[in-house]
């Protein structure tokens, strides 16, 4: 630290520190888009299951399947008949909230998604 004339202290940076960009290249490169896409699909599926099980009275009956249609991924959420109302919500607000969260995840994964509740 050095002092200036106006009694303020200023941090000085050490010039010997070098910026190592080789680590950043390792993180950005060498991963296939298919691997990233699969992990994004898996994380979206896990998010749907997590939310549906938290809402359902019978969480063991919750299952999610996906169908890839090229440019869009269709998720099918199946719950017990008694839990459909809880998962859909009044006026479909809970289902719309889940779909909104899915859209955010899909934008990060550069894909489009749809959720159908069976």
Q: Would you summarize the structure shown here?
A:
The chain has 118 residues and is an alpha+beta fold.
Describe this structure in words.
This protein is α+β, with helices and mostly antiparallel strands and 118 residues long. It has a single domain, classed as K homology (KH) domain (GMP Synthetase, Chain A, domain 3, 2-Layer Sandwich), CATH 3.30.300.20. 44% of the residues lie in helices and 19% in strands. It contains four helices and five strands; from the N terminus they run ββααββααβ. The chain has helices at residues 22-28, 33-55, 84-88, 93-109, and strands at residues 2-3, 9-10, 63-68, 72-78, 112-117. The strands form two sheets. The chain has a three-stranded mixed sheet. Strands 1-2 form a two-stranded antiparallel ribbon.
CATH superfamily: K homology (KH) domain
What's the main sheet like? 3 strands, mixed
> SS-based structural class?
alpha+beta
Task: Detail the poorly predicted runs.
Answer: 8-32
Radius of gyration: 23 Å
Average pLDDT over all residues: 80
Order of helices and strands: EEHHEEHHE
The proportion of residues in beta strands is 15-25%
The largest sheet has its strands arranged as: 3-4-5
């Amino acid at each position: 630290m050095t002092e200036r004339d106006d009694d303020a202290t200023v941090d000085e940076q050490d010039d010997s520190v070098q910026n190592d960009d080789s680590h950043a290249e390792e993180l950005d490169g060498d991963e296939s888009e298919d691997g990233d896409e699969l992990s994004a699909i898996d994380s979206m599926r896990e998010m749907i299951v997590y939310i549906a099980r938290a809402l359902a009275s019978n969480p063991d009956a919750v299952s999610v399947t996906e169908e890839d249609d090229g440019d869009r991924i269709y998720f099918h959420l199946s719950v017990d008949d008694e839990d459909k109302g809880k998962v859909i919500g009044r006026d479909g607000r809970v289902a719309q909230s889940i779909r909104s969260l899915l859209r955010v995840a899909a934008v990060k994964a550069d894909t489009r998604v749809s959720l159908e509740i069976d």
